């Protein structure tokens, strides 16, 4: 049984609880909740109590705290899930690791690569699992694309085109802190674009070597438009575009990887493969791999020794490195376009 605590009980924490509800009874139990606003923790506790497989048996309920240090000191925990604004991730993750607790941290792992590396190194030195909440690692189409590229069947990856669009202003949490650089640490590049950055790095299997970045704030305090040209450590090149002011609220993305002997495309939940000189073929859904259902289930099962952690800290470090290189190249970020008036 993995005894879990939450640091941060805002909107994304409800997603984590829903994911944890897929665990088998006896694998995990949520015993502590911490948020600077106790009402957030109380609301999350009501949701937790709907799932008997992860909720402490009555009359006991998860303990609620306003100070994460008190929760870490008072409760017997095995792991924590960190769902706080980006700028606090390093502080909260390190506090948990120093209590010898496993950690699942929301994306982005950190806003500075030195902080991300310290978090990774501390977890490794202590033999703890530090996972990052990148859910695309668990989507069959992306998992298949990665395995196909890594197998060498299509040769070496040469060129990547990837894009992501979303209306960040109407996204969950945007009204509270997504557009506040003092809490988010950046804009669309690390709020949602980090998912795309991660999946490009994960599928290609390389680290960023050089980044040329163009960004625009479009009337906001953080960047809304991002376009990157990237050279990877294995020589592959990438063109990555991230839009935070889409007419559609929902997030959409696409990934295309051209290799020396073919290509892999991921679009709208489907994956396509084309060998050189052949036809573009969609891979039937029933033939796609079935990895662990989500980061939270995988995190708990990895602690229990039932699965390998599919989103290790190294993924977060690589993404943070590319993002920091992009910010460094783009600064100062211009604000050329007129405010949208939202």
Describe this structure in words.
The N and C termini lie far apart (47 Å). The strands form two sheets. This protein has an eight-stranded mixed sheet, with helices on one face. Strands 3-2-1-4-5-6 form a six-stranded parallel sheet, sandwiched between helices. The protein is built from twelve helices and 14 strands. The chain has two domains: 2-134, Rossmann fold; 136-291 and 311-330, Dihydrodipicolinate Reductase, domain 2 (2-Layer Sandwich), CATH 3.30.360.10. It has helices at 11-20, 38-48, 68-74, 89-97, 113-126, 140-151, 174-178, 181-184, 188-191, 193-204, 295-303, 313-330; strands at residues 2-7, 28-34, 63-65, 79-82, 102-105, 130-132, 157-165, 208-216, 225-232, 237-243, 252-259, 262-267, 270-275, 281-282. It has 342 residues and is of the alpha/beta class. Mean pLDDT is 93; it is low at 338-342.
């Amino acid at each position: 049984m993995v005894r879990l605590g939450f640091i941060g009980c805002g909107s994304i924490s409800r997603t984590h609880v829903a994911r944890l509800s897929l665990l088998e009874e006896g694998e995990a139990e949520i015993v502590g909740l911490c948020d600077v606003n106790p009402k957030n923790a109380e609301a999350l506790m009501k949701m937790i109590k709907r799932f008997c497989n992860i909720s402490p048996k009555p009359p006991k309920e998860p303990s609620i705290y306003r100070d994460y240090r008190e929760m870490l000191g008072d409760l017997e925990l095995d792991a924590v899930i960190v769902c706080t604004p980006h700028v606090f991730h390093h502080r909260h993750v390190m506090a948990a690791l120093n209590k010898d607790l496993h950690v699942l941290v929301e994306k982005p792992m950190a806003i500075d690569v030195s902080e991300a590396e310290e978090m990774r190194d501390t977890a490794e030195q202590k033999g703890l699992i530090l996972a990052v909440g990148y859910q695309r690692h668990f989507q069959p189409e992306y998992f298949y694309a990665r395995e196909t590229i890594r197998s060498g069947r299509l040769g070496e990856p040469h060129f990547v085109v990837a894009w992501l669009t979303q209306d960040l202003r109407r996204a969950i949490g945007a009204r509270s802190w997504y557009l506040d650089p003092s809490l988010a640490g950046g804009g669309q590049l690390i709020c949602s674009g980090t998912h795309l950055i991660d999946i490009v790095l994960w599928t290609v299997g390389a680290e960023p070597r050089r980044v040329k970045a163009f960004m625009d704030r479009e009337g906001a305090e953080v960047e809304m438009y991002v376009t990157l040209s990237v050279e990877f450590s294995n020589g592959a090149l990438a063109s990555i575009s991230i839009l935070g002011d889409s007419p559609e609220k929902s997030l959409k993305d696409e990934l295309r990887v051209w290799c020396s002997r073919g290509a892999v495309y991921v679009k709208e939940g489907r994956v396509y493969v084309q060998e050189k000189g052949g036809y573009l073929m969609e891979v039937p859904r029933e033939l796609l791999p079935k990895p662990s259902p989500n980061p939270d289930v995988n995190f708990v099962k990895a602690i229990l020794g039932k699965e390998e952690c599919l989103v290790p800290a190294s993924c977060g470090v690589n993404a943070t490195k590319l993002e920091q290189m992009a910010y460094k190249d783009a600064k100062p970020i211009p604000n050329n376009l007129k405010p949208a008036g939202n």
